[in-house]
């Protein structure tokens, strides 16, 4: 029986399995990084960091999914500046002091045969909020623990929220520099893949959408101008990263609002990102405005991933209401996407990948340390 390597075992125990040419459990190579299957742990904020520092919870939370058979473990949205956090409890990478706690996670994930990736983010006008478990309301004053928020234009996320400070040229340049410095720290921490967060109504998405970007300079107005910040950051990070390491970008394919960002613009952006050396578009949607009408349902975002993949030739990841092994397998086999990103289902079922393998008739990749229990049950 093949098994996921344990922390003292080599990471090649699964390579002698016979696997169909393309399915959920077929390996895939992206640049110089090989993923053992097509299952990705999507970035999911845990809201339990102190001053941005990863702790034992993050190690166990992320490490358990690596041991559970996921191919790529993505660390949650990690703020590139202190003021770019959604809440005071977000992970951060704005200081060199953050490197070692994150490196500890990357080392363990890699020891389990998975690949460690990290999502770099700035919350923009959706920053300075209380923890979700406390209601998630905006923290409007320093006395409440809040801080000033920034955005492309002085348009708040929702009525009553703080009005963001519109970034000037120096501020925009500072954001690009912050993403670059964060990427350098991520590489030093040992992450083998970086994702730029340009979705869910956070800063880079705010620049993309005409609903939140009313600028009249060369960062607003036309599609070319609204894409400029994302493209600058992607180009800077691609130059920063070694050629063998992949760069992903997460986007919201549509705002689900008339006059907002939409799938046609997403296709155009994806083509430009591909030209800059981005390897995969992680295709989500929504979250720019609070009252969009989103037809949430099984695989509701998958068609966006397929269209971007077909029209641009870039690899895509599908995400959103994907919970069943058969459905995930069909997404890959049918050419809808190259990777399947699982989010809340992996919170409910940390060993989803092992169970999915069993359901699909593939030999599960149990951790070496659990082999005794698995063999006994098989007898």
C-alpha-based Rg, rounded = 20 Å
Which fold name fills CATH's third level, the topology? TIM Barrel
Distance between the termini: 13 Å
For the biggest β-sheet, the strand order reads 4-5-7-10-11-12-13-14
> How many helical stretches?
11
CATH superfamily: Aldolase class I
Q: Provide the CATH top-level class.
A: Alpha Beta
General shape: globular
What is the total tally of β strands? 15
Low-confidence stretches: 1-15
| Beta-strand content estimate | 15-25%
What brief labels describe this structure?
379 residues; alpha/beta; TIM Barrel; 8-stranded parallel barrel; two-stranded parallel ribbon
Written description of the protein model:
The protein has 379 residues and is α/β, with parallel strands linked by helices. The protein has one domain (3-378): Alpha-Beta Barrel (TIM Barrel). The chain contains eleven helices and 15 strands. Helix 1 packs parallel to helix 2, helix 3 packs parallel to helix 5 and helix 6 (263-275) packs across helix 7 (302-312). The chain is globular, with a radius of gyration of 20 Å.
Summarize the topology:
Elements: E1 3-4, E2 28-30, E3 33-35, E4 39-41, H1 56-67, E5 72-79, E6 91-92, H2 99-111, E7 115-121, E8 150-151, E9 165-166, H3 169-188, E10 193-198, H4 203-208, H5 223-240, E11 247-252, H6 263-275, E12 280-284, H7 302-312, E13 315-319, H8 325-333, E14 339-342, H9 344-348, H10 352-359, E15 366-367, H11 371-378
Parallel strand pairs: 1-15, 4-5, 4-14, 5-6, 5-7, 7-10, 8-9, 10-11, 11-12, 12-13, 13-14
Antiparallel strand pairs: 2-3
Helix pairs in contact: 1-2, 3-5, 5-6, 6-7
């Amino acid at each position: 029986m093949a098994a996921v390597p344990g922390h003292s075992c080599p990471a090649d125990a699964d390579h002698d399995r016979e696997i169909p040419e393309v399915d959920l459990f077929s390996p895939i190579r992206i640049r110089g990084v090989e993923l053992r299957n097509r299952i990705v742990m999507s970035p999911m904020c845990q809201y339990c960091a102190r001053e941005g520092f990863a702790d034992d919870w993050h190690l166990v939370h992320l490490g358990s999914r690596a041991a559970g058979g996921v191919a790529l473990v993505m660390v949650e949205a990690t703020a590139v500046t202190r003021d770019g956090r959604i809440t005071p409890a977000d992970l951060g990478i704005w200081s060199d002091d953050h490197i070692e706690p994150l490196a500890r996670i990357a080392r363990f994930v890699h020891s389990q045969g998975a690949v460690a990736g990290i999502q770099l983010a700035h919350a923009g006008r959706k920053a300075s909020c209380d923890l979700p478990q406390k209601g998630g309301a905006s923290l409007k004053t320093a006395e409440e623990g809040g801080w000033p928020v920034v955005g492309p234009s002085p348009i708040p996320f929702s009525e009553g929220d703080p009005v963001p400070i519109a970034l000037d040229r120096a501020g925009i340049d500072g954001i690009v520099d912050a993403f670059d410095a964060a990427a350098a720290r991520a590489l030093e921490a040992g992450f083998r893949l970086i994702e730029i967060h340009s979705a869910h109504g956070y800063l880079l998405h705010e620049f993309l959408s005409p609903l939140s970007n009313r600028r009249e300079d060369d960062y607003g107005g036309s599609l070319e101008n609204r894409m400029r910040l994302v493209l600058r950051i992607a180009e800077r990070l691609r130059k920063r990263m070694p050629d063998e390491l992949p760069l992903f970008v997460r986007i919201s394919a549509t705002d689900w609002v008339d006059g907002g960002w939409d799938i046609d613009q997403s296709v155009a952006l994806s083509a430009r990102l591909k030209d800059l050396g981005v390897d995969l578009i992680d295709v989500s949607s929504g979250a720019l405005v609070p009252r969009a009408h989103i037809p949430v349902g099984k695989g509701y975002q998958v068609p966006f991933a397929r269209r971007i993949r077909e029209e641009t030739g870039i690899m895509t990841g599908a995400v959103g209401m994907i919970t069943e092994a058969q459905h995930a397998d069909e997404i890959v086999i049918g050419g809808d996407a190259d990777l399947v990103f699982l989010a809340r289902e992996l919170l409910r079922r940390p060993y989803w990948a092992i169970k999915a393998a069993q359901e699909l008739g593939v030999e599960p990749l149990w951790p070496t340390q659990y082999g005794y229990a698995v063999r006994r049950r098989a007898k």
